[in-house]
Design a protein that fits this description.
- The structure is a homotetramer of 336-residue chains.
- With 336 residues, chain A is α/β, with parallel strands linked by helices.
- The first copy, chain A, has two domains: 2-62, 2-Layer Sandwich (Alpha-Beta Plaits); 82-335, Aldolase class I (TIM Barrel).
- The first copy, chain A, is built from eleven helices and 14 strands.
- In chain A, the strands form three sheets. An eight-stranded parallel β-barrel of chain A has the order 7-8-9-10-11-12-13-14, surrounded by five helices. A four-stranded antiparallel sheet of chain A has the order 2-3-1-4, sandwiched between helices.
- In chain A, β7, α3 (107-120) and β8 (124-126) form a beta-alpha-beta unit.
- The two termini of chain A are 35 Å apart.
- Chains in contact: A-B, A-C, A-D, B-C, B-D, C-D.
- At the A-B interface, α8, α10 and α11 of A face α8, α10 and α11 of B.
């Protein structure tokens, strides 16, 4: 159960509500976000909400049967629109395009990418400075110095930045230089990281785990929301299955299902979803048609020379063509 | 290696080619289809094809490294177009729509469905008369009598029929009454059935196995082709994964991959691919955008009263809307 | 619901029971096996069984909530012991060992294998004469002639035969020459084949599907049982998962679960379960310890020269060592 | 390539080796553990190791083709034995038993468990004080205070402690109070955590990821080893598959495969591997027979009242019986 509190609630009123809820056999958790205050009451017995509905300080009460509560669409029918500032949004009826290299490599590379994105009207650039790698001997990214360089150039170009955060200590280091924190597929259930991202006032995009269920993805989002941060985006990036003809199996089903279950925007990552350069386009277009609020993909001036993910990265002319087609596909979808 | 033979080849010439190929350490299989004659030569050693290229009776020679040969795109770049007669085709640049109930139930139902399809410009009706059911106590379909009734009505309406064949003995029973034989997901590797369908001069659509790989699907098609029947269609219908939020996981990646690996048309089945009525539409549209040559889905005048698959069946107004949107999506894709 | 009928029931009594059950809203299926007669009543409403319990011709009534009925342990607590004749059994407290090559190849091979088995005290030989192969160009087995040769030699040696049947027409061909019909992993849901095997009075071992659930395996066994054949054995042979370090993932959990859910004997196939020769032994021993009623595995006089499955086949000295260890492991388990 | 350095190597000698390796086109990483010093040289070109073999400071050179190097058995044939102190070991020919509750709950519970373990001759107690939970509203463990209480009681009883560490900041907090750090299935690829555990001189047991490959597990162990900590244990705990009859699918194959690929001890967790209390015993016994060096499982004085994992936890009498059987099974295996 979600008990929405009024913004003017007094602390004694809150105490009374908590006592009442506790006396009814429920365990309550107080949640304060950028946008509101809530009590999440968890319990097994049902009770008549009229028993508490009259109490001062309560704005609204919602019964939510899902395991996750605050990210459920059962209490918030309107889709959340995440604001990145300067008129850039994810969700809420537009199509957000995020493109860029797997890893930030050089100043030159960043400049070329920004030029390409500006020309194509793309407002968000992706890139990794901390890279999760299976092998300890592989390239692990440029780190914070690379991020600062990138941020300076992107800011000058009027382009927003999304980049992966891998551990708690990186949150503070990165906070001034990113517009969206990305939680990677290996960290979807890194609960300490999620807890800490709840304390930040900056959008967070959570990727589905490598073999995570949709339920788990939503519960991970609930961690961040209940920690205090409502600015959340979900991302489908393919799952691990028995089929090895593609790197992952893009779960196209996840898009309509997540949009039905949650009010959060849903982004698709076709680069990881299929993992093969020549098929990124059809998968991206399919995701647009299935209802995605955004697409995030990898592009590089010379994919074959990229430090990582070379086999699934588009060059700029492929990227340009994809952007044009995605816009046309989205326009068609939007016309229905 | 595929050795294409000339139509005028004499039997002594064929013998010479077989002898030569055998002497080079290859095992050869002769294949005669509706459209041509081939020798499939399988062996490990490489040899210079000029050693046999001059022999009379040989039209062309193709080296194909894939496990499957005749269905590979490595020797036949142009996409196959399967002709159902009366100007109805699958593949070759159009979008084939196939719709109808899970099971054929009554004359009334067939009539209503035909009327709906005609009105919407759909030329192929799907429906099952032999139903594979996990439980021996479940409804197993109307059998051949149902098929005859359906065929009579469909023929009068000018609509083609696709229906599942479950065992060898049904092939002869069904042959006069279907336009396309469907091999179901539980029979993708029923090799005896595939062998027999190779002897039929009628299109066959093979569904991917419940957890079949794309390689296995193509090898199953190779069975039918090498048995003598080139009129083949592949169908992606979702695979079994750990995720239980949907009935199956629609493998959208399979569409571009199959189209690259094979010259055969690729159809998508969103009804089984997601298994949830309200999400069939976005998944169908995604499949169109990903490059499918056709869509097969379930519709019924009263889905909640259908004998089977009620939870994934569209009603006629949903079906009409889907058809309209698919046509618009296909037109957009076709314009690129 | 399973209604066990008396052996002396009269047909008018049976009619009365069917009418009564129908009037209560249940659909009934009559089942006559080698061992008894049953009515399977399927319906949604609950009724008090005392309403029918008094009726003449009824021996017993069992409420079984599982989807499958006759193979459930909910009505038959004692484990089924399948009798192969001449004092050879599967199930019922002993450990049945079945060994032999993937494919029957030559007379010489059969003789060597029989000698090895006799020496080791193994009473059942496995071998394939009809081979399901993904590629139409691969070796498909010696067919019925090979089976006859094998049968003659095995009979002389006092060894029983288990061999795979792939299609309905092979049942009659094989019937005189096998002691146990095996249904392979690609045919677990070949329902027509299962129906026909219900009409045979000979043991049938059903392998779990390549990605079949335990529920599906039990439902497939229900097909054969409800068709009239109670002589059934279940076989776990590994499932398809994302992990490619082994050919399949042996589902060791399946053994205790199947033994709890069903009264049928449960055999394990470590050769296919892991697919790597040097690890067949530990997996076989694990299966014995987990409670398997039998082990089926591949052995060949020269594994590296076997026509098929060379990489997972033991030579005779490995086989001998495995047999000795399995007997010791089983003796320990049996002592508890 | 692993270049083992002598303990007396001088820094100038090391510099010469690094220069030489670099000049040959290899990238080198220096690794210093509790037990030795190594240079890991990664590169694509092959070179004749005699080119460097003569250089002073080199003890030995091993070519290791695996992605992981230091944990591979290709350079270290003898199995690693991890020393927990006071004569308690994991690996090296004995069977280590680790048992205890999912979560540490109360002093009373700890005392009862310790008494049970002492009586049964078990020397390592498991238990969680930081619990990874999908839902932010679930019980998250007693934290460090619980650990201190537990440690005091266990130390007095002469029992070692293994407990999960979830994030970098907990390493220092826990270090004085645990004997083995456990990395949970959701953190197998938390590379920052692995890096930090490389700096600790205390055994680390790494669980396989929820759908992690064996290759990934070994690479995660490589992170810790290359960070400086050789005291490593691998743990198979079941993987996520399509089968939902059990919580996870215990991958019994993983045990012999990991033992072949790596010199590290391999422990099995049947509680999570099957997730159903009544089947923990057969799965544990199977794992012993398959070659496991240890078994870790959940036990509680009153499983039905446990704060977490109640459905897969043994009571003390079940635990006692399991311990006795595991010892007998291990004795049999050891006799071969």
């Amino acid at each position: 159960m979600i008990i929405q509190l009024t913004s003017s609630i007094q602390s004694s009123q809150k105490d009374s509500i908590v006592s009442k809820v506790t006396s009814l056999g429920y365990k309550s958790t107080e949640v304060n976000t950028q946008l509101g205050s809530y009590l999440i009451a968890i319990g097994k017995k049902e009770f008549d909400i009229r028993q508490i509905g009259f109490m001062p300080g309560i704005a609204d009460i919602h019964q939510v049967s899902d395991e996750y509560k605050l990210v459920s669409r059962k209490w918030k029918v309107d889709q959340t629109q995440v604001d990145l500032g300067d008129g850039v949004f994810i969700g809420g009826g537009s199509l957000a395009i995020m493109a860029g290299p797997c890893s930030i490599e050089t100043e030159k590379q960043v400049e070329l990418t920004l030029t390409h994105l500006k020309k194509s009207g793309v407002k968000i650039m992706r890139g990794g400075v901390f890279k999760p790698r299976s092998s300890p001997y592989a390239f692990r990214g440029l780190g914070v110095d690379g991020l600062k360089m990138w941020h300076q150039l992107a800011k000058a170009a009027g382009i927003k930045i999304i980049s992966e955060v891998m551990q708690v200590s990186q949150i503070a280091e990165m906070d001034d230089y990113v517009d969206v924190f990305q939680v990677g597929a290996r960290n979807t259930q890194n609960f300490n990281l999620l807890d800490e991202l709840g304390k930040v006032d900056k959008p967070v995009m959570i990727k589905r785990g490598i073999s995570g269920t949709l339920e788990e993805l939503l519960s991970s989002a609930e961690y961040v929301f209940s920690g205090g941060n409502e600015k959340l985006i979900l991302c489908e990036r393919g799952i691990r299955t028995y089929e090895k003809a593609s790197r992952n199996t893009m779960d196209i089903n996840a898009i309509p299902i997540l949009k039905e279950k949650s009010h959060l925007p849903v982004v698709a990552d076709p680069s990881h979803g299929i993992g093969i350069r020549e098929y990124v386009e059809p998968v991206a277009l399919a995701a647009v048609m299935a209802g995605a609020d955004g697409i995030i993909y990898e592009t590089h001036q010379k994919p074959e020379e990229a430090y990582s993910d070379a086999q699934q990265t588009l060059d700029f002319s492929e990227s340009e063509r994809l952007i044009r087609k995605m816009k046309e596909a989205f326009a068609l979808r939007d016309s229905w």
